[in-house]
Amino acid sequence: MMCNLLRIAIIPRFVQHRRAKEQQKNRKQTMVFGGIVTSPRGSLSTQQALELARVYLENACRAKDADIILVLCHDTEVSLSQAKRSAKHTDDQLERKRIGTVYIQLGKVLYSQGHSKEAQTSYKKAEKLGCVKFDRFIYP
Fold this sequence. Notes:
Structural class: mainly alpha
Order of helices and strands: HHHHH
Mean pLDDT: 76
Low-confidence stretches: 1-7, 27-33
Radius of gyration: 22 Å
Number of helices: 5
Distance between the termini: 68 Å
């Protein structure tokens, strides 16, 4: 009797798990970028990574859904980090200020979404890049 109860409880879970794995595998095969092509973000120049960050940020400003806005803000920050890493190897102050400006814009979007801590972090990163003094910046 106990074996039958175990079979009833375990077998359906195993079948569900196996079906979920098959569905996941099928989705990966039909996705264009999923696991098939890796992101070339690491090979972008400073200017390209900065442009990508701007595109993400523009779309975040246009989006209406709060979850989508946060995802786009995250993508903006990832691209800005890449741009910052690339700019670290040069002494181009103009590039650093451009990156800082996008960090300020990112902070404004985050602040408008009610994420003031994250906005402050973004403003501080802009300040470190020499873009603006944080204490003089007024929240939007």
